[in-house]
Sequence to fold (308 residues):
Amino acid sequence: MNSVVFSGRPHITLKQTGRYVGGSRKGFYTLKNDQLQPAQLAPLAEFLSECLMILKNFKLFDTHLHIIDNRFPLVPNNGYLPAPFTCKDYFDRMEGYALVGGAIVSGSFQALDQTYLVDAIKKLGPSFVGVTQVPVSVSDEELIELDFAGVRAVRFNLKRGGSEEVKHLDSLARRVYELLGWHVELYVDSSELASLYRVLVALPSVSIDHLGLSSEGFVTLLKLVENGVHVKATGFGRVNFDIKTALKDLFSANPDSLMFGTDLPSTRAPRPYEDNDFALVVEALGAEDACKVLYENAETFYRPSKIG
Fold:
């Protein structure tokens, strides 16, 4: 299913069933082909072609996706367990995109398990990397093995838990960077960034998830970006501010910082990922700058062993 929106126009989804699904951001309705008037077909076909072309014409390194495979351990987080979302499910959902790689991110419900992540990297291929959660007690040998398997970062989940405590952020971030060149990723609300600012700005390599989630603290996020911290343009259905404005402000603060991701399968998000989110990056930044956000910045930051 593919859908996009341009300059406030209604988005239209093309389904493989042969039906057109259209509507505004506030709702959906279905139009069977035989309900369309002949005069509507030509502009609709043109618009659908434009919708699909934007997905195919921009390479994507998807910086934030989850693989949920119940063959491996899952830990309820505040009573929540997600539905399965396998490697095949991911590839099926991304059909139509010029997908060249991505980062598989460990969720709170996967805690410190590495088995699912190593398996997922193998299945998705060498253009994909892993973002894991490890305890501070992890050995150098274990970290080196994970690096060999394709892991490139450690995640601190301040929002949901399941990761190491934030008091170990400074020491663990420096350790994995010095040993392997890894960065750390934080799932944190921007309202908490002021208290973490001095630590984060001094670390060698950091990324913040989901545009920081909230408008409160966004000024602090911009200051971090100006000082080299990366930000994921992900989870558009999780934030409480105007995304288009935020994308422009963050890109202006540091063109090398912003990196797009789908956040699939959007676990617990108020509004799950839509193809419109991808198109919004192009609309907000223009084609040349969007290429940096959709692909170039992430390829440099995540260092996959191969670009697919």
Q: What stands out?
A: The first strand starts at residue 2 and ends at 4.
